[in-house]
Amino acid sequence: MKLIFRTFRTFRTFPTTTEHMRVYLDNAATTPLDPEVLKQMVAVMESTYGNPSSIHAHGREARTLIEKSRKTIANLLHTSPAEIFFTSGGTEADNMAIRGGIIDNQIKHAITSRIEHHAVIHTLEAMQKAGIIKLSFVDVDDKGNVDYAHLETLLKNNERSFVSLMHANN
Fold first, then answer.
1. What is the crossing angle of helices 118-129 and 90-104, to 10°?
2. pLDDT at residue 169 greater than cutoff 80
3. Residue 120 contacts residue 112 (beta carbons within 8 Å)
4. Least confident interval from 19-28, 78-87, 100-109, 160-169
5. How far apart are CA 36 and CA 57, in angstroms?
6. What is the pLDDT of residue 73?
7. Rounded distance, CA 111 to CA 154, Å?
8. Quick one: which H or E segment has residue 144?
9. Cα dist from 156 to 109, 148, 159, 161, whole Å
């Protein structure tokens, strides 16, 4: 008997003996790369290494690939390419979304929980320290469930609030 895990379009099988079994369960952080994706990435990295911000031929070629990717993703998500941003990872994406959302919308209050990811908590705490927002922490129980009555109170007592609550913890 073998354990089978579905990852994108490929199956990974693992022997069931404890001395050989490797099971990866941190897919909220990262996942194994699909071999087709890896093949395409290597081909692009080997042939298109120009700085996409440069105006020389290599840079323009790289920029074209990025913009084509942006358009493809936008079409899949039924949105505009201008709404697709590429970041180096989750922390940068969190920072950009939090700071941009709060500052652009002139929000003065944010709510999160003590069990939120550090990328969120640290950003919100820095914004509070800079005087940009007032930060509130909603209560959670010992299993991480949000106290909705407390959240409702925080929302009622603050006209406009930015809320960031983790659904699953990795």
1. 40
2. no
3. yes
4. 19-28
5. 27
6. 96
7. 8
8. none
9. 12, 12, 7, 10
The tokens for 17 are 């003996």
Smallest Cα–Cα separation from 11: which of 2, 20, 41?
2
Other CB atoms within 10 A of residue 118 CB: 10
Neighbours of 60 (CB within 10 A): 13
CA-nearest of 147, 86, 87 to 113 is 147
Helix (H) or strand (E) holding 34: none
Q: Which helix (H) or strand (E) holds 157?
A: none
Residue-wise over 30-52: b if at least 16 C-beta within 10 A, else e? Answer: eeeeeeeeeeeeeeeeeebebee
Give φ, ψ of 85 to 5 degrees: -120, 135
- Tokens standing for 40? 């395409």
Closest CA to 139 of 151, 128, 127: 151
Q: State yes or no: pLDDT of 76 exceeds 50.
A: yes
Full-model pTM: 0.72
